TrEMBL record:
Annotated ranges, domain RCK N-terminal: 2-118
Pfam families xref list: TrkA_C, TrkA_N
Source organism phylogeny: Bacteria, Bacillati, Bacillota, Bacilli, Bacillales
GO molecular function: monoatomic cation transmembrane transporter activity
Leader sequence segment: none
Protein name: Trk system potassium uptake protein TrkA
Organism for this UniProt entry: Salipaludibacillus aurantiacus
Domain RCK C-terminal residues, every copy: 135-219
Amino acid sequence: MKKQFAVIGLGRFGGSICKSLSEQGMEVLAIDTNEDKVNEYATIATHAVIADTTDENTLKSLGIRNFDHVIVAIGDNIQSSILTTLMLVELGVNHITVKAQNDYHEKVLNKIGAHKVVHPERDMGVRIAHNIISKNVLDYLELSDEYSIVELIAGKTVHGQSLIDLDIRAKYGCNVMAIKRGEEINVSPAATEYLMNGDIIIVIGADKDINRMEHDLFDDED
Ligand code: ATP
């Protein structure tokens, strides 16, 4: 059976989630107080309704309890976001993801029982900053204050060398999770696997170690 999602708030963030889930063939209920927004998504989502989700009876009548995952993407109105989340928690929704507007908002959402809190502007800012600082870092995912997963582009320095030649695990304490070459992805590559100019490698490790490795092996001059 298809998974059922509800997206509350159809701003840029909620709207993009709604579109993407629909494109991937999921059942999506799109909800907003704004009639224009709801009309905009009527042909994209499976259903689109005008509703104020701060009203408990409205949530109950939508059968929100039965959805596999509810995404709260109400932005500016922090009070509505918190109230909606609180009611979703009380109604026993299985998975609740909420967009936070700032750190205080995030704290409150975690306290009241949101299962996942996302902070897209802040997180995207961090990722883009890493990408700007180093042209070899294609993407960056912060796991904690100290650990990350990064996508690095292989250049001349590592071309034709195997993971064992480069001794990445012993020298840098980092693990290569995958090597992407064109359309092909080699997940958990063997130590004998070699790298080629243009490969993308996905590495997990401590930030300080990743930085050291990136500086030694991936910081090619053009
Ligand atoms: P983005 O940056 O993603 O565009 P935003 O942070 O500007 O979003 P808003 O525009 O404030 O977010 O809110 C997103 C949507 O949530 C709006 O379309 C708004 O009508 C809707 N919304 C606000 N309050 C409620 C509510 N109580 N119930 C349902 N929808 C709501």
